[in-house]
Specification:
The chain is of the alpha+beta class. Helices cover 42% and strands 25% of the residues. Helix 5 runs parallel beside helix 7 (194-221) and helix 7 (194-221) runs antiparallel to helix 8 (227-282).
């Protein structure tokens, strides 16, 4: 009771003072205490606010001669030239397809001899193998038969042409009613064939009737013979004249027809020779000298003057005497006509050979030999579609390539084909380049790494790569504008080639850029006030 009494008895003003003190203490404590999440955010903000901003670059940097020596600054003049873009692609060595061949027998036969082995270097025309073939034998015999028939057709045409011209001349001469003895004498040494006998016989009969009729007319006028007899003789004369004139027309037609038929037979004979020749060509069998003589006209006589033989002796000799070509052909008939040779089509190396020995049957499905000329090879590379634009500009350009087989050695070639078809699976396009291979170091199937140089004849300022500095995505260089002044200048770059970089904007030829000490100069530009 005493305690309560004491508390109650505290003056009111004391309580007011205590309340004010408590309130002041509460406000003071709130200014120093915050929730934990607010304190974390404030700490980060405080750290951010306390980090110093990056030092700005000074656009122009000053450095005297001593400072330049200390920084190791070296400058170089900006030159102008062509910097070709270079991109790489995996590749391999493949044979030059213009000097690559599968040697295949086109006519079925049996191997007789084998003369070439794998890895052997052969020259064009060297013998690879010989084959016996009944098909080739038949084709050769057909050619021989066609050539023989051609010679007969030529002789027949020569004879018919002579008869044709001489026969027409005789008919024309007889139309003038000459003396039969004069006609006989004129054509005594000129071949006329059956035309001579028929025409001269009919003409003699007609000439005799003409003379007899004229005599009877004269006698009839003198009353030496009856008029009836003279009239009968005149009728006989008219019949003989009509028969002779009809015979001349018929003989002119017949000798023209026979001449035309002879010409047609010669055409057919020539066609037969051509068919036989092409059959051998399809079989891949050389036609030797006969084809050359046929094509030149020497064998068929097409190159002659075409004049008929004027005398009987010349016509007879042209008919019975075989040409020199046929004589040589007949001598060669004793050689095996069934055997033909497979020859090397070009200078090259035998890369593969089937297991062929004498007695093996072969046909068009057999690749007896695989040959390639390795003095020149192709470099085949597969370029990704991201480089298609550069590939299109590399036509006729050069390539450089290396092989693990020859460490440290670099080979060169020239772009031959840049491809037109994109592989659907790999999304790549085929590129071919040709390369000289005089030492035979490059073998088909060898893998290589290819650098392809695109060709674009644009002259641009170019600088060493050591002069180029970066700031984010931007590129800049230091350009010397005075003995002790260097300007920081932003540039745009183009192609790179080795340690050279093309500058498309920001530099002119003749200016000098810092190529050594650029990083030190960059640091100095950050320390200098703007």
């Amino acid at each position: 009771m005493q305690l309560v009494s004491n508390v109650v008895s505290i003056p009111r003003r004391v309580w007011v003072v205590v309340g004010l003190v408590f309130l002041a203490l509460t406000v003071l404590a709130g200014s120093f205490w915050r929730p934990w999440w607010q304190e974390t955010i404030s700490t980060d903000e405080a750290q951010t606010s306390t980090q110093p901003p990056p030092a700005p670059f000074s656009k122009e940097v000053r450095a005297d001669a001593r400072q330049q020596d200390d920084l190791g600054i070296v400058t170089a003049e900006v030159s102008t030239g062509t910097v070709s873009a270079v991109f790489t692609a995996p590749g391999q060595i493949v044979p030059d397809e213009s000097q690559f061949a599968y040697i295949t027998p086109r006519a079925k036969g049996i191997i007789r001899d084998v003369h070439a082995q794998i890895g052997q270097h052969v020259r064009k025309g060297d013998l690879l193998t010989t084959i016996d073939s009944s098909e080739v034998a038949q084709a050769r015999l057909s050619l021989i038969d066609a050539l023989t028939r051609l010679e007969i057709a030529r002789a027949k045409l020569n004879w018919e042409e002579t008869i044709y011209h001489n026969g027409l001349d005789m008919i024309e001469a007889l139309r003038g009613d000459p003396d039969p003895d004069q006609v006989q004498k004129k054509f005594a040494k000129r071949p006329v064939g059956k035309t001579r006998e028929q025409l001269l016989t009919a003409y003699a009969q007609y000439h005799l009737s003409q003379i007899t009729s004229a005599r009877y007319d004269k006698l009839s006028k003198q009353d030496a013979v009856p008029l009836m007899r003279a009239q009968q003789q005149r009728a006989t004369y008219q019949v003989d004249r009509a028969s002779f004139q009809g015979l001349m027309d018929r003989m002119a037609f017949e000798i023209t027809l026979e001449y035309t038929q002879a010409r047609q037979e010669l055409r057919e004979a020539r066609t037969a020779v051509k068919v036989a020749r092409e059959t051998l060509r399809v079989y891949g069998v050389p036609i030797d000298k006969l084809a050359e003589q046929f094509e030149s006209g020497e064998l068929t006589g097409d190159g002659g003057d075409g004049e008929p033989k004027a005398t009987l002796r010349e016509a007879a000799e042209a008919t019975i005497a075989p040409s020199r070509d046929v004589s040589e052909l007949m001598k060669a008939e004793g050689e095996p006509v069934s055997t033909y040779e497979l020859l090397a089509p070009f200078d090259g190396t035998v890369l593969q050979r089937e297991r062929i020995v004498p007695g093996v049957v072969v046909d068009g499905t057999n690749h007896l030999f695989t040959m390639a000329g390795l003095d020149t090879v192709w470099v085949e590379a597969h370029v990704h579609e991201s480089d298609f634009d550069l590939l299109n500009r590399s036509k006729g350009g050069r390539v450089q390539f290396t092989s693990p087989a020859y460490p440290g050695e670099e080979f060169e070639g020239q772009v031959l084909y840049t491809g037109n078809l994109v592989d659907q699976k790999s999304r790549m396009v085929r590129m071919l380049a040709t390369a000289e291979n005089p030492e035979r170091k490059l073998n088909p199937g060898m893998f290589v790494n290819v650098e392809i140089h695109s060709q674009d004849a644009r002259n641009e300022p170019k600088i060493p790569e050591s002069a180029l500095l970066t700031n984010g995505d931007a590129h800049f260089v230091f350009v010397q504008t005075g003995p002790e002044r260097f300007e920081r200048r932003q540039v745009e770059i183009g192609r790179r080639k080795g340690d050279e970089v093309a500058v498309t904007r920001g530099l002119d030829a003749g200016e000098r850029v810092v190529v050594e000490g650029a990083f030190e100069l960059k640091a100095k530009s950050q320390s200098q006030p703007q």
